[in-house]
Amino acid sequence: MEGSSISLKTMSTIPSGTSCLLGTRCSSDNGLRIYFYNLGGRDPCVRQYGHFRNVLMTGKRWRTANGLQVGDPMRSMLRLPSAAKPA
Model-level pTM greater than 0.90? Predict the structure, then answer.
């Protein structure tokens, strides 16, 4: 993400069985949550064992390299190069 930087030192980890949540303590308007998993019995919050599952970013501070941001109208996405497709 362009123009955004969050130090891993400001993030907290929350293990839960086979998954791990790494997230900021920001308001819901500017949040970042990264989810990892491990199905082999290892701690998913440990770098060498956690596998990326998904990420949730909230707030208008996040932008793609093409300038797309949360809340943009669909027509903004449709103007992007053909490799970008709506979900």
Answer: no
